[in-house]
Every structure is written in C-alpha cells, then in structure tokens.
Amino acid sequence: MKFSMRSMPRFLALAVLFLSACASAAQESNQNSARSSAIVSESSPAASPTAGAKSTSLPEPSPTFFPLDDSPPRGAEREFSTDFSKHSIPYDEILSGGPGKNGIPAIDDPQFISIDEADAWLQPQEPVIFVQVDDDARAYPIQILIWHEIVNDTVGDTPLAVTFCPLCNTGIAFERTVNGRVLDFGTTGRLRFSNLIMYDRQTETWWQQASGNAIAGELTGTQLDFYPAAIISWQQFKSEYPGGQVLSRDTGFNRSYGSNPYIGYDDVNRPPFLYQGPATPGELPPVARVLTVDFGQEAVAYPYQTLQELKVVNDTVAGNEIAVFWQPGTASPLDSSQVSEGRDIGTANAYNRALNDQSLTFKVDAQDEIVDEQTGSHWNVLGKATSGELAGEQLEPVIAINHFWFSWAAFKPETRIYQ
User: Fold this and answer.
1) Between vectors from CA 399 to CA 396 and to CA 401, what angle results, nearest 5°?
2) pLDDT-based confidence at residue 16 (cuts at 50, 70, 90)
3) Residue 72, Cα to own-chain centre: how many angstroms?
4) What span, in angstroms and rounded, lies between the C-alpha atoms of 61 and 200?
5) Rounded CA separation 251/249 (Å)
6) Closest of 150, 44, 42, 47 to residue 399, by C-alpha
C-alpha cells in the first residue's frame, strides 16, 4: 500500500517528528552472526480482567525452550545489559523506532497540580488517562504522555506505570511490583507491530506494552498486572473528581506540550504509518478505533463506530456479563496539530454488570441518557449511578483498552468483533 502524493508532506513531517516522540518504525536488519538462543514461547495475556480497586493478576505462562539462531536487534547489545539469550519472540519482529534507549524520556518524578491550576491549560474535550486507587484519583493528560509514553508513579500506596503508545492509541496502566520488587520503566526506542517496547531499569528486561509480557531478558515470560485505566475527557474528570490530581507540565523536559506530532495519524482511510506485522483481518479498517476486552478464553473488540451508534452494549464475554458505555465529548489526540482541536471521538469504558447480587441491563432512554432496566437509575460513562434508586453506586470496571484495530489484531487475531 502506498500513500498518495497529497498525503506525503504530512507524513514526511511525521517521520521527522518520530525522532523526538514515539517512533517512525523504520526497520533495521538484524546482525547475521548466528548463535544459539533459548526461546520462550510467548503467552497470550489471558485472564479475567475484572478489577475494582485492585489490579488484574494474569497467570504466569509455562515457558517452552527450544534452540534457535537469532541475533538481538542491531545495536541493542551496546545499549543494554539485557540477557538476550532469553526471549519469547523472534528478534526480526522488532524494529528501530528512531531514538535509542531513553530517547523518549519517561517521567520518573511526576509532579501533580490541582484541578484549578490544570484548568488554565487543559480544554474540556482534551483526553486524559484516568487512574484511581482508593480515594486517590489522578489524570494524566495525553498532551504530556504523547511526548514521554511512560510515567513511573505511585498512586495511593500502589506503584504504577501509566503508559501511552501513540502509534497504537493504547493507554495502559500496570502495577510496577514484580516478584516483590518495584520496577522502573523506560523506553527502548524499539517497536513490535508498531507497539511500544518498554524495559525495566532493574533487570533491563524488555516488555511489550500492548500485552504486558516480558519478551526478552531475565524476566522473559513474566506478566505485568494490569490496573484499570480509562481515556476520558478533561471535563469528565474534573466534574467527577474536583479534588483530583493532575500530572503537571513541569516534567524537567522542554517539550511542546499541547501540540500533536502525529497530525492525521488516525485517519481511518489511511494505512498505519510504516506498520510491519501480521496482515490485519479485513473486518475493520486497520486504523479503526476499538475498545478491547480479553478474558483469556474470549476476547472482544467493540468498534467505536458501533458504540457511537448504540451508546450502550450489554454483552457476555467468556461467561462474564459486562456493559460498555460510550459518551461524546472527548477529542482525538492524533488528529489535529493541537491535541485539544482533534475531532470528537467520544469515550468508551467497560464494566461488570453485576451489582448488589443482581445483574443489570442497560439502555439509552428518550433523553439519550444511560439507564438500567431494573431500577431506572441513571448512569454516567464512568460507571456511576447519578440519580434514581441506585444513586451513588459504582459499577466495577473491567480492564478495557483502547487500540487501533491493526494493533489489537496483531496480538489477538482470533478476537470477536461486536456487531
């Protein structure tokens, strides 16, 4: 597939900006020197993703070792002390992203400000990643994360990594504690299927952001625990959590916060920029937005286009009754030159339908509001009952992750698409 001449200036500029932001996915060939490696077969991130105040603990895979001549990505052995003899994927699936190790700097000492302070530079429709541990609710503006991709933070008493890969549209939070040790994460400067590859500074193991799997190094085969995180609008966050904390622009780095270095990247009529990976199933355009839920035995993708039409979905995934809510008012961070000026793509979140020993069924009423059929209570997109018999009740969030279809399908091609 080729880009039209009309699209070339935009994407040439994008390629240059990849050197200072996520990555351009320009492939480097592997070294040809053969050696014997121990390969661990990669495990699917399968487990029940339901999580309220706690993260989702995924089962550890059973490693299968077999010999294979495979050289690490070019230049990796000079930059990293990683044990590259252990890996769960072929190294030729890993591409250079332009900048090297830490070329996209993680935020290791995040500073936070109040709602009022952040309101001076955040627009109501701007997307933020929302994370809450107990009473500690935090917003991580994507206008900052688009330039850093990883924030090493402690929310409440829980060490978390809040991550965002612009090329895949994936905002994911993980617990940083692994085998009793707190890890700090940075960027490798490499990609797999256009997705961010992280590394931890304690063992220099490489981790796939989309799946949370360790794919190379000492901890290969280990699975990070997902923690609930949702991409919502600034308006939704500040209205629901007026006492919440907001990641500050005072990061210690000089970046053009608020601007988008990936102008037009999420145009559904264009192929993903320089993607190299498995062929994308044709049921959806490669750059179609989907909200994904994976219970191990079954994974489902909910297209944003479908959610925009329905606004509410009641579904059963691997025997688990869930609801998916959609609401307008959130800008795409990857559309316009300014994050705040992106077109409205809305917010989608997923929840467990079980509440107080009953299973709720949701619909949209004549006023276009979400209500449950059992009590007629009204609900917002954050899963909270705002009025009616159940006012104040909170649905348990399900681990649900935004992806572009090509990105999710590369890792979970057997996914059911909700229609």
Assistant:
1) 135
2) very low
3) 26
4) 19
5) 5
6) 47
First to last CA, the chain: 27
Encode burial over 352-371: b for 16+ CB neighbours within 10 A, e otherwise: bbebeeeebebeeeeeeebb
Q: What is the largest CA-CA distance in the chain?
A: 68
**Average pLDDT, integer, range 73-94:** 96
Pull the structure tokens for residue 300.
């489902």
Residue 37: per-residue pLDDT: 35
The strand pair at 195-200 and 206-208 is best described as antiparallel
281 burial type by CB count under 10 A (0-12 exposed, 13-18 middle, 19+ buried): middle
Q: Does residue 196 register a pLDDT over 70? A: yes
pLDDT at residue 8 greater than cutoff 90: no
**How far is the CA of 103 from the CAs of 18, 145, 265, in angstroms?**
11, 14, 21
Distance of CA 14 to the CA centre of its chain: 21
Q: Which of 108, 128, 96 is nearest to 15 (CA)?
A: 96
Over residues 342-373, the pLDDT tens digits come to 999 999 999 999 999 999 999 999 999 999 99
CA-to-CA dists, residue 38 to 30, 64, 86, 90, 324, angstroms = 17, 9, 5, 11, 41
Q: Is the pLDDT of residue 159 over 80?
A: yes
